[in-house]
């Protein structure tokens, strides 16, 4: 199943230790966020328990000095790996600000996207723009690649999203235009209550890439080293102007779809135990110990630091205040319209808000 080629080097001990710290931080923050929802600190959250390796590994492979990442609503692990401020990220789950309060341009992370499949279209548009920008004089996509290759987009979506028409349009255009995009599907077995078998004809998303003449990699999404190497391989292909790549990371949504979902209504604990595969955090711990790259003290320290960091985020989230309502008029267009200005003043008169 794992199609990582030998041209992608093995990860170093230092990289593996960094990845372990990231996986542990994501695991602890994710568990904490579910608890915050139960405690009434945030109204809702989409857990990613079990998907840490898929998210951390893929984001870890990116070059944040030039690439751009387009998330769904479940990519806290990718955001944390990019170094996004986690209070600003969690603002969307506190309902303080839709899409997160972080700056997408400096963090290289597009706003959190709840429209299933929506981020994939944005990624293709952005990536096509990179090829146009590489040959501005001609007004056409560059044929000659810059020496260090093109900036690339990484876009996340789920097995459920892959059944949407938008995904077909995005992939077809990306392949025709040879846009530097990595389509990263987290096949976590579920689209809310529907198993993959009930909504992905043929049972595999990766197989569809052939229809677009697109390179595809299927990878064990619970093994972070496999994910990093697959993403690096895909990026090299996209940067060279050879076109987009589809990565299908096989993983499992161990928790509910969101904090308002009860998976006990459509699957049993036995199903979960049978289908979940390896725990990504435990798997990397085993790999580190058996290769002699880390000892138990390192793992314990990473855990303690992650718990403490999640607690700092909680305090920040609790401090978050509502944003001024007038901002809803300010971020619609770069240059506002008369109609919007009129609406804003009518809203002020009616609501007495500032
Ligand atoms: C366009 C659109 N249709 C439907 C929904 C409702 N919805 C939210 S999540 C979801 C399932 C998505 O499943 P998948 O793509 O596998 O992602 P996962 O939640 O497993 O990460 C649906 C149907 C939505 N948010 N947007
Ligand atoms: Mg899914």
Strand content range: 5-15%
Q: Give the oligomeric state.
A: single chain
How many individual helices?
Answer: 14
Using only C-alpha atoms, the radius of gyration works out to 21 Å
User: Which regions contain 5 or more consecutive residues with pLDDT less than 50?
Assistant: none
Spatial arrangement of strands, main beta sheet: 1-2-3-7-6
List all distinct small molecules, including ions and cofactors, that are bound in this structure: thiamine diphosphate, magnesium ion
Question: What is the β-strand count?
Answer: 7
How does the overall form come out from the CA principal axes? globular
Report the mean per-residue pLDDT as an integer.
95
Question: What portion of residues is helical?
Answer: 40-55%
**How can the largest sheet be summarized?**
5 strands, parallel
* Structural class designation: alpha/beta
Helix and strand pattern: HHEHHHHEHEEEHEHEHHHHH
What is the straight-line distance between the termini? 56 Å
């Amino acid at each position: 199943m794992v199609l990582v080629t030998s041209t992608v080097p093995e990860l170093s001990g230092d990289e593996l230790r960094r990845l372990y710290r990231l996986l542990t931080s994501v695991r602890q923050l994710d568990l904490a966020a579910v608890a915050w929802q139960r405690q009434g600190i945030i109204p809702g959250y989409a857990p990613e328990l079990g998907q840490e390796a898929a998210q951390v590994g893929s984001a870890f492979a990116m070059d944040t000095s030039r690439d751009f990442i387009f998330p769904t609503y479940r990519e806290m692990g990718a955001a944390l790996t990019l170094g996004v401020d986690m209070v600003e990220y969690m603002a969307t789950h506190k309902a303080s600000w839709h899409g997160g309060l972080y700056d997408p341009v400096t963090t290289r992370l597009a706003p959190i996207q709840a429209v299933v499949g929506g981020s994939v279209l944005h990624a293709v548009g952005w990536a096509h723009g990179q090829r146009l920008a590489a040959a501005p004089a001609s007004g056409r996509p560059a044929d000659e690649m810059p020496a260090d290759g093109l900036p690339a987009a990484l876009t996340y979506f789920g097995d459920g999203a892959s059944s949407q028409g938008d995904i077909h349009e995005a992939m077809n255009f990306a392949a025709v235009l040879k846009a530097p995009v990595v389509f990263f599907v987290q096949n976590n077995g579920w689209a809310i209550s529907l198993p993959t078998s009930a909504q992905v004809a043929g049972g595999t998303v990766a197989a569809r890439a052939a229809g677009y003449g697109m390179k595809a990699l299927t990878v064990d999404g619970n093994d972070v080293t496999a994910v990093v190497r697959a993403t690096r391989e895909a990026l090299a292909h996209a940067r060279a102007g050879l076109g987009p790549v589809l990565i299908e990371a096989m993983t499992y949504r161990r928790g509910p779809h969101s904090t308002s979902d009860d998976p006990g209504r459509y699957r049993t604990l036995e199903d979960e135990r049978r289908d979940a595969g390896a725990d990504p955090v435990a798997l990397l711990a085993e790999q580190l110990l058996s290769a002699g790259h880390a000892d138990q003290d390192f793992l314990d320290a990473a855990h303690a630091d992650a718990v403490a960091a999640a607690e700092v985020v909680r305090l920040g989230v609790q401090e978050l205040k509502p944003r001024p309502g007038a901002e809803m008029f300010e971020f619609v267009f770069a240059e506002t319209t008369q109609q919007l200005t009129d609406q804003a003043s009518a809203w002020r008169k009616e609501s007495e808000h500032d």
